[in-house]
Predict the 3D structure of the following.
Amino acid sequence: MTAKSTKPRIWISNRTPQQGSVVTVKAMVMHPMETGRRKNAHSEIIPQNIVETFECSLAGELLMTWHLHPAIAQNPYLEFKFRAQKSGELKMRWVADDGVQIEAVETITVS
């Protein structure tokens, strides 16, 4: 299931890097990250709803996986770096515990 939520905010330091150079990626997804411990105005517990994993791949090759926990604040933000070796689609995917997936795809062209 894919989320119909706000598009993730993605910043990439260089979309056309030279081979071997370092590329920085900053990514933030809009998500409430409910812990399952808060109550609403009617004193009912708000069900847990967290992003459990983030995966990023370039040209089909996994670059990183991040496992999140309920203690992570809403709208999770992360920054990571990788060495540009080949061109391709930089695919980022956040998966929530309810099966909802939020995806972003950016193109990296290595010269």
Observations:
- The chain has a mean pLDDT of 92.
